[in-house]
Amino acid sequence: MQHLSIELDPRDHGLTPYRVTFKRAQSHPLRSMLDEDIWFSHPERTETAILWARDEEAISGVLTYHYQDTWNELTILP
Description:
The protein is mostly beta strands. It has one domain (2-76). 12% of the residues lie in helices and 40% in strands. The strands form 2 sheets. Strands 1-5-2-6 form a 4-stranded mixed beta sheet, covered by helices on one side. The chain has a two-stranded antiparallel ribbon with strand order 3-4. The longest helix is centred in the last third of the chain and has 9 residues, at 59-67. The radius of gyration is 15 Å and the shape is elongated.
């Protein structure tokens, strides 16, 4: 599971961990790194992460920082 934060050491900055799920949109076509003239896209997927933020309202800002506008359907898990 990945940990996402805007700060390098979130505990030192007083951030709280939140377990979240969110959807990532299908990626734009990407060229294969193996020089095989193959193009692919990452499919739409649901991801789970530990996200460090000041409060629940700041969570969307952390996701936008890491993924710009390629995420939606945020759920904070208990």
